[in-house]
Amino acid sequence: MKRGFLKGLDLERAQIDSIMAEYGKMVTFYKSKLKELQRRYDEDERSFEAKLQEVQLVHALKLALAGKVHDAELVIGLIDKAKIELSDDGIISKGLDEQIKELQKSKSFLFVP
């Protein structure tokens, strides 16, 4: 809002000052509100992305282990997911085979013969 606009309405200087002061308070309030909402949005977006990546990884692991293990959930719990990389199409590109070989040696009962 501009003072010239208010002057054009034939308002007195004291009225214009009062309106501008209130307007300034509102602008400050809404700027801080916008900043807070943007921060929460960014936080929620990061959280959503992390959850989505976790779901995609677990889904890819279940597909990769299907028919090879007795209990996929148990085996997935034993796998270090941080070492696994997914390709752009959601397929495991590396990190699983080495871990599966180690698990087959140490916990062969989990795997279908």
Automatic annotation (TrEMBL):
Residues 27-54 form a coiled coil. It holds the Pfam family Phage_scaffold. Keywords: Coiled coil. This is Uncharacterized protein. It comes from the Bacteria.
